[in-house]
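Order emerges. One example.
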Amino acid sequence: HADNTQEKALEIGAFLRTLKSPPSWRTLRDEVDTDQIIKGKRLFRELGCQECHRPPTYTSDGRYKVGIQDEAGEADFNPPSLRGLSQRDDLFHDNRAHSIEAVLVDHGHPDPTAPPMTQQDLEPVIHFLLSLEAIRKGAASSRSPAHASYLPQPFQDRSDHARFGESPGPIRSVLDPLKTART
């Protein structure tokens, strides 16, 4: 039975990799602000967020101190992927944060001893994080090449989509029926 279980687990994993992530809420609501995304992406790098949440998966294999402890006193955690963040209601390993703002402000992630982020910096970082699928799926690909620098690296080259089992087509085609229904 062990081999059969392992084989089924591999098959399930292979199937799951074929599924596409749902678009971010920002994309579905047509609230993607390219300027905010560009600024948020820049701040994400400047603040060192990519140290633990590395593009293109926006995670890593490491364990890091995140400024909180669980009930057992554990303070080192593996960072979750930030892709699909707009689809989650609760954050952190124990669901103690109910928004990205709560993670960054209320819990002071990643360093509660550091000065808090200003609202001027907080808003674009949150906008960037809530728009990751729109960027990852190429929704902004119709924009001018000057904006391509904010795209996660592997998706600047459309041939890399196959590596992640994703279609390189723009997400706008998914939204066309929604826009038609509204008009």
User: Anything to note?
Assistant: The beta strands are 64-65, 76-77. Confidence is low (pLDDT under 50) at residues 134-183. The helical segments are 2-18, 25-28, 34-46, 100-106, 119-130, 132-136, 172-182. The two ends are 56 Å apart (CA to CA).
